Sequence to fold (497 residues):
Amino acid sequence: MDNARIARYLDRKWDEDIVPQLVDYIRIPNKSPMFDPDWVAHGHMEAAVTLMERWAKAQSIPGLVVEVVRLEGRTPLIYLEIPASGTDTGEDTVLLYGHLDKQPEMTGWDADLGPWTPVLKGERLYGRGGADDGYAIFGSLAAVLALQEQGLPHARCVILIEACEESGSYDLPAYVDHLAARIGKPSLVVCLDSGCGNYEQLWCTTSLRGLAGGNLTVKVLSEGVHSGDASGIVPSSFRVLRDLLSRLEDEATGRIRLDGLYVDVPEERREQARKVADVLGTEVYDKFPFLPGMSPMSQDPAELVLNRSWRPALSITGADGLPPLASAGNVLRPFTAVKLSLRLPPTLDGKQAGQLLKDVLLRDPPYGAEVTLELEKSSSGWNAPAQAPWLTRAIDDASQAAFGKPAVYIGEGGSIPFMGMLGEKFPGAQFMITGVLGPHSNAHGPNEFLHIPMGKRVTACVSHVLVAHHAASLRGETAGVAAHADSGDRHGGHGCC
Fold:
């Protein structure tokens, strides 16, 4: 395998073909169905699908099948199939995944940038969806094209590009079931929808946190009353809420108090966290826009890595019942409500966590206050299966070839429902979960960008792993599995979060 030749080919392919396509893609305000319920009428999703379908069909790959699959009442899915090249590997298949839907606009973009305005600045392409995850179909096909340009072998490949990942991938299980016979028996799943700790080496995701949360409301009165008359007699709804939250979280340290929300962290994941800390150092927390004088929750980068990947953590992401400061009078308010976002360890059962949350917060409310918890989310996380030796070697060799540095493995703090679902659908398959969302790339936020050199090198890494997979398949070191029936509880309508 001529790595320099791979790099030269992908440089040209990205610069001359892929980047212009991504520029056009960014212009399409193809918000996920959760954020655009009238997506059919608006036509933006169809425009994104058409752009990708047309480009894929134009690629010179012998036997390439490109099809837009449409199930009644569901978002479309792009299905691509590439026959094996070189020595036959039988039914063995590589499944590559990406998505084409986007998060909404969000405020805070720089004056010269915008979510639907593609802007090239040096090595960065700004705009919504380029890195999350518009590049996936282009990168997947380019990885195969780079191999075929050298006559290098690969197993049969299937590429799935879904259209509701940012809404929880609720349509994906139906499509996997519908296409199960055509998908075949993947022994390797490649996902290009994750993050990276820097732009200097390949990063592979080993786990994702689960998520439980919803709206916690405390009511004490039927209407607001004069605070001078009532304070000292009527318990403040805010104080009652604060008391309830203290059952869940130690307000001095941020540590979650409930033992049932912790799991034993595998030693392999602890060792990987230490290696991440060695690589990133203070960048583990320096990447965040701390105000002057602020400090992280720990000075130990390895502990911070474990905090964001394997330990429960609570955030309050919204509030109601509180008037704006400008109109806040001397009133003891009838209620206070907050939105809870409780991140869960990857191997903790999400439904179990949601029930525990209810039990703790609703039990024996102070002063007999009316306390409700509308649980919106209770999803499990994902922990990657043990990695086969051939894949470990392939990933590290790929990173050395593309970056000149070893690969790094990291648990991500977010909750991506489709990963748990794919793990359930294809038990026994190996997983390579990677991506280009690195420091300051700001997926879902303002000034989101794609780091183009990272995109090129990740594509080269996929090429390398595809060749290694083919060789491992011939040696009998891979084991493809057909899709299992969906349990229905590893995904949902709460989006990628």
About this structure: The chain is about 35% helix and 20% strand. The first strand starts at residue 65 and ends at 69. Residues 3-208+381-474 form a domain with the Aminopeptidase fold (CATH 3.40.630.10). The mean pLDDT is 94.
